[in-house]
Design goal:
Number of strands of chain B: 8
Structural class of chain A: alpha+beta
Helix content of chain B: 40-55%
Strand order of the largest sheet of chain A: 1-2
Largest interface: A-B, 19 and 19 residues
Structural class of chain B: alpha/beta
Number of helices of chain A: 3
Helix content of chain A: 40-55%
Oligomer: heterodimer
Order of helices and strands of chain B: EHEHHHEEHEHEHHEHHEHHH
Order of helices and strands of chain A: HHHEE
Number of domains of chain A: 2
Distance between the termini of chain A: 78 Å
Radius of gyration of chain B: 18 Å
Number of strands of chain A: 2
Shape of chain B: globular
């Protein structure tokens, strides 16, 4: 191995393949989560917002509905942020 | 009853047609009656790769439209009596492939053939979705490169939802990974995704690894499926892949760097 090769090798120790693998792992996981979402989720989200809005004022952008798939069970996760001014005083 | 195999990838230029030609020739050489169909309507190329471009009279769309019967359109390969090619039409009409029409042709082929190989066009337009709709098995051709791997994953999603088997709640399409244009040298240098990387990301059964090889261009230049080049690495890798598809257990060759001898170690190279 020549001197030049030595420097070249030490500079690119972490090859671009590692970067490619990491980027793909994230991307594919994201794509698959999106793909596996049941088609009723957006409609469910709309209807939930409608129901909750009857009782409290909520910011639509702060509502998330997610379905997490597990081996033994799926979890439907509903996340609604009630900011201070929307919570009615008791 | 024939088994229908789609050769798909999403991304273009990764080796679908090369693979369709090699795979169908490999099945035919092992004695199976095989038909290979070009689904790339408007951009027919399988005939060129198979070396039968001057014998095309009728095409797939002619048969669907009833302008010719299957026997008139099928081109028998000159090297194997078991292999027939159904060329794509050069029409620019994207609606030419109908689900019913494709279904009818496949059903008729299934009566006399053992395997029907569907060479899918790139993309996710009609030709590609028609090629996969009736499939029993899918060969997902992938290059060790980010855009190809991503597109392959997209195709897996479509295979799982938009096929006849999926719509009828039947057993899902069997999916296999075929990694093409693989360069063990570049993987060794950390410049290319390894077999394991791609397999981990796509979690598919690995059917074969085809090395990057000058034999592939030489083969398409002369219209000879590369699997017939017995001396080439790519040809042998395709032969192994056909064997594995038929249930043989074969070690993957051309995946690791060849061991360097004493002299090449000493003098580099």
């Amino acid at each position: 191995m020549g001197l030049l090769d030595y420097f070249r090798a030490s500079r690119s120790k972490k090859g671009s393949a590692v970067v490619a693998r990491e980027r793909l792992q994230i991307l594919v996981a994201h794509d698959r989560a999106e793909r596996d979402r049941p088609s009723y989720l957006p409609k469910l989200q709309e209807e939930l917002i409608a129901v909750i809005s009857k009782y409290v004022k909520i910011d639509r952008s702060k509502v998330s509905v997610n379905l997490e798939r597990g081996d033994r069970q799926d979890i439907l996760e509903l996340n609604i942020v009630l900011s201070e001014d929307t919570v009615p005083s008791r | 009853m024939a088994r229908i195999i789609v050769v798909t990838s999403g991304k273009g230029g990764v080796g679908k047609t090369t693979t369709s030609a090699a795979f169908s020739m490999g099945l035919a050489r092992r004695g199976y009656r095989t038909a290979v169909i070009d689904f790339d309507v408007g951009l027919r190329n399988l005939d060129l790769v198979m070396g039968c471009e001057r014998r095309v009279v009728y095409d797939f769309v002619n048969v669907i439209n009833g302008e010719a019967n299957l026997n008139q359109a099928l081109i028998r390969d000159k090297r194997s009596d078991n292999l027939y090619v159904l060329p794509a039409s050069q029409t620019r009409d994207k609606e030419a492939l109908t689900r019913e029409g494709v279904g009818r042709v496949l059903e008729e082929l299934a009566q006399t053939f053992d395997y029907v190989v569907c060479d899918s066009p790139a993309g996710i337009e009609r030709g590609a979705t028609m090629a996969m709709y009736y499939a029993d098995d899918a060969l997902v051709v992938t290059n060790p490169e980010v855009s190809s791997v991503r597109d392959s994953d997209r195709m897996l999603g479509i295979l799982a939802s938009k096929s006849r088997r999926a719509e009828n709640n039947e057993e899902p399409i069997r999916e296999f990974l075929l990694l093409t244009r693989y360069s063990p040298e570049r993987v060794h240098k950390g410049e290319m995704l390894s077999v394991k990387d791609v397999q981990d990301i796509l979690s598919l059964d690995l059917l074969g690894v085809i090395p990057e090889s000058p034999a592939v261009l030489n083969a398409s230049n002369s219209g000879v499926p590369v699997i017939l080049d017995d001396h080439s690495d790519a040809g042998q890798a395709y032969q192994d892949m056909v064997g594995r598809y038929l249930g043989e257990e074969l070690p993957h060759r051309f995946v690791d760097l060849p061991r360097k001898g004493f002299f090449s170690r000493l003098f580099g190279g």
